[in-house]
Design a protein that fits this description.
rod-shaped, mainly alpha, 2 helices
């Protein structure tokens, strides 16, 4: 009886383990489905990114080239503004120097013309600076937009890389799970075969008696 009860207990253990293994198989199958879905989503996301990438990259490149030209124009503008300021300073010095001449040689009309010229140029300088400041602000806005587009492209790539890494990790986990299930099933099958042999031996023994 003790042999029988031992076999019965071993059978129960094997049944419990088989149930656990069957549950693990179900989990594994669900994992495979999820992985397949994840891969499909990733491929869709990658295809969308790839199709947009070329266009976005072309826009960024065109934007960068445009900014280089814009910057050169602005620098030229500021250089012109500086030249204007230098000219005004020179004319002012001339006007002040002129008033220090011998009174007999002074030409009041000439001085008046010079002062008027300086006034006109100063107004011109103010307008130039206002225009350049506005353009400078516009340049910064365009640059910020371009930086944001670059960042969006980079973060899109980073998200895809992250998703791919997660999928790879899941796949490795599932591969390992499959190996564990296979080896577990082999062990259980061996255990079952051994029990069957023991049962047979026990039955033969009883028949002999």
């Amino acid at each position: 009886a003790s042999g029988k009860s031992q076999i019965a207990a071993a059978k129960q253990t094997i049944d419990t383990k088989q149930k656990e293994l069957d549950q693990a198989k179900k989990t594994y199958q669900n994992g495979l489905k999820e992985l397949s879905q994840g891969k499909k989503q990733y491929e869709q996301g990658k295809a969308a990114y790839d199709s947009q990438y070329a266009e976005a990259q072309a826009k960024i490149q065109a934007g960068e080239e445009g900014l280089v030209t814009y910057r050169a124009e602005l620098d030229k503008g500021w250089a012109g503004y500086q030249t204007l300021l230098n000219t005004i300073e020179a004319l002012k010095a001339q006007a002040e120097g002129g008033s220090g001449q011998d009174p007999d040689q002074e030409n009041p009309n000439q001085d008046q013309e010079l002062l008027q010229k300086i006034q006109v140029m100063e107004l011109q300088a103010q307008e130039t600076k206002k225009t350049l400041d506005a353009k400078e602000q516009d340049y910064q806005t365009q640059k910020a937009g371009l930086d944001a587009a670059k960042q969006k492209l980079a973060s899109g790539k980073a998200e895809l890389d992250q998703a791919k890494a997660k999928l790879d990790a899941s796949e490795a986990k599932l591969t390992s799970a499959a190996a564990s299930i296979e080896s577990g099933q082999k062990q259980l099958d061996a255990g079952k075969a051994e029990l069957k042999a023991q049962e047979q031996t026990l039955q033969n023994g009883e028949t002999e008696i």
